[in-house]
Fold this sequence. Notes:
heterodimer, B: 13 strands
Amino acid sequence: MYQRSLYKNRPQKNILTFQLFLAKLALINSNFMIFEEEVKHIAKLARLTLTEKEIKTFSTQLSDVLEYVELLNSVDAEGSLETSQVTGLQNVTEKDEIMRKCDGEALLLCSPLPKERKQIRVKPIIKM
Amino acid sequence: MNLSEFTIKRTHKGLREKEFSCVELTREALKQARLANDKLNIFVTITSEEALEQAAKVDKKIQSGEEIGILEGIPCGIKDLINTKGVKSTCASKMLENFVPPYDATVVKKLRNAGMLMIGKTNLDEFACGASTEYSCFGPTKNPHNSEYVAGGSSGGSAAAVATNSCLYSLGTDTGGSIRQPASFCGVVGLKVTYGRVSRSGVTAMASSLDTIGPFAKNVRDIAFVLQNIAGRDNLDSTTPDVQVPDYVENLTGDIKGLKIGVPKEYMDENTDAEVKESIENALEKFEDAGAIIEQVSLPTTKYAVAVYYIVMPAELSANLARFDGIRFGRKPCEEGENPEDYYYNSRGEGFGDEIKRRIMMGTYVLSAGYYDAYYKKAQKVRTLIVRDFNKVFDKVDVIVGPTSPFPPFKIGEKKDDPLQMYLADALTVPASIAGLPALNVPCGKTKNGLPIGMQIIGPQFKEDLILNVGHAYESI
């Protein structure tokens, strides 16, 4: 017979909020925090324009999340292999044949930029 | 015609026996869809004209005495990040608000071959990133059982469409719980398939080692009908292995005598809401009455799953979303700037919403030099431990049963500005995603406030037939 859980009739504690509280406490004491400069740098790497307000909000939110994932530091995974895929497929190849889902003209129509001679016109890359 | 009483099987019979025409059926579904949409914001696009055209074709076929397939003329909804040729597919993002795909996703092509009748494209969290549909650029989808609550996410529109009888089935995607959790919140059945069971060609990628596509419906049999038509190898998606597709409908015997069901103690601990636990325990008693053997099992790495997921997923997402540059497709920014680089910054800055920006930055951060080993590599190693945990448990039991979500639906606005709290909503769905396992949500009760509670049935890889049969057995008890 399956044992009903012991917690059933107890009042619920909000453990998740408590965990968050602990995480925030740790954050204050830790040297680890993404500062606004770092957020600006990541945004640059990811080619994202951010407003000053966004930079402030994201600094706090990303610090919270990074602090939470620090949880993995407590796991001993030494000697364990890295999993990058789960169904065991290896070296999937296809015949070297052209497969067309649609024609080139239709693909060009997806671009919001002007087209010219079956090409998309972009801003100049090299200044003359 | 009362669509709430209709399943796919019942509707198919009605069409074949000319109890009603497909045009009548479609008109009713469209009426329902418009009503529900006005109240709950379920659809991004309602495709009335296309639907009625297809309905007329099906009617013609029936009139001329031709046989029709089980899904032929059955109204359905498709999540708006799945490409539908000639119909806007926005990913609920300003980045793609005007994107009309020039080809169908493989799943859509397969459903078209089976006679698909699409009534609309459903709302989602932007690029499928969220657990409440509140991160859609078109606003949140509200819960059909109480409009102050969220429908769940990211496939909230697809779940609510079925729950409101706007359609009989729908397609969603599940990367960390995006089918199971909204199915649980809206009180419908939803299936996350084994990684690779259904082709993802033509579906906007979020996290490539985790993304799956699956159906929502009112009961497990209907899920089986849809899965039968979309599963299998596709040479346009090299992650679909050549594993045989069984007859999912035939396998629904409802016999679970002697079946071993494992209940992970970590899924039923103090982090799970009391009402949710009680519903699951009631369901377990029913399984026991039907002859199943219930035993407690342990998945000790469950507590690390969300942390692993929120490293691996943003890493993959940041790479996948790098393709949105506003050149080949995407948003032309208001300020184009002087050079291509300015153009990228402005297109992406204007086009992406807050949650996408957060995830792109998180992913960029964990993949950057100096942090790669500490975060990404470490997460991949812990991922191996999570997979191993499941393998050990499946040596002892046939399926795993637990709650889909640790808590019932939450209020709109409750977690929207606290990303970490939103991420913890995935606590019980991400473990199966990380291990690539199939998992089914089946409604199993309601809270005292009348909000749905869902049970999750997890099976070994490619054992969709088994978990569907367990879900079907539960529905039949």
